[in-house]
Specification:
The structure is a single chain. The chain is mostly helical and 123 residues long. Helix content is 37%, strand content 7%. The protein has helices spanning 3-12, 22-29, 35-44, 69-78, 91-94, 115-118; strands at residues 20-21, 55-56, 83-84, 87-88. The strands form two sheets. The chain has a two-stranded parallel ribbon with strand order 1-2. Strands 3-4 form a two-stranded antiparallel ribbon. Strand 3 and strand 4 form a beta hairpin. The radius of gyration is 16 Å and the shape is globular. The structure holds a DNA duplex (13 and 13 nucleotides).
Amino acid sequence: MPFTARVLTAVRRIPPGRAATYGDIAALAGRPRAARAVGNIARDSRAPGTPWHRVVAAGGRLGGFGGNPAMKRALLAAEGIRMAGGRIRDWCRVRWPGRPADRKARNRAARKSVSPGKRPPGK
DNA sequence: ATCATGACATGTT
DNA sequence: TAACATGCCATGA
């Protein structure tokens, strides 16, 4: 199953009244860091029955939507998800799947070497 | 503390 | 290659 199909399946798994982040969808699809790929697929693919409006950005932000973010907001509101200043209310409850917690364990080991003299833009 | 910006990370097309 | 409906972190206001 190609990654795109997996993403579509994951999105369809989102129950009504709930929403998932691009990162979560990517993780369900098997590529935890492919959030951007998910967005890319979403745009290129308009598979029917795929509730892309339930897919939002991290932190409960709307994220982007093809040409009409207001429509996305309306669709979410129709499912009982309301927003507050661009953020989903009770995001911790509507989020799906239920994520236990994460804390700042992300070390990323990387930022890699960040090439000398590049990262600290600092002032 | 919150918002905005900059920069890099990651994956597919 | 660069673009993208992102994510996370750091810094500045």
